[in-house]
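Backbone geometry:

***
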Amino acid sequence: MGVLTNSLTQHLGEAFLFLTLLLVIVAGTAISTARRLQTLQKKWDRLLKGSSTENLEELLLQHLEERAGLTAQSRRHGERISQLEALAKTAKRHVGLIRYDAFEDVSGKQSFALAVFDSEGNGAVLSSVVGRMDCRVYAKPLVNMQSERMLSQEERRAIAEAREDGPRSIVSE
């Protein structure tokens, strides 16, 4: 022990310098570690923000459960969309209405031709011809926008009116 004490007293300046340098290195390392810890704490807080748990494992399990629920819900929505698309193909959504005067002595455009069909052109054309003494109603089936019966000019106009795309009134003058 005496040798160590003699050596330290002879090299006291160097020992002090070495210990000061060691202290600076340890302090620098501590400051750097504190900054990194602070950065990690901010990241951790941001990761757990809005969570009721402080445990990352619980958070991940909750996330997996929510994801499984959303996946199942998305699959159900996809199935429902497919069903609705199939129904939409047969929906009678194309409508055209032409009003006209069938006879010169009857005014007021009381006669009409109404075309109603789906996206494949399957539906019907209804016509009402109003005269002074009577009113006649005709129904003609449509398959691929064609009828097995002869179509009048007004009925063909009603079909053309129903084919037009875009928002518009179904009543045409």
The radius of gyration is 43 Å. The mean pLDDT is 86. The chain has two domains: 12-87, 94-164. The beta strands are 94-100, 111-117, 123-130, 135-142, 171-172.
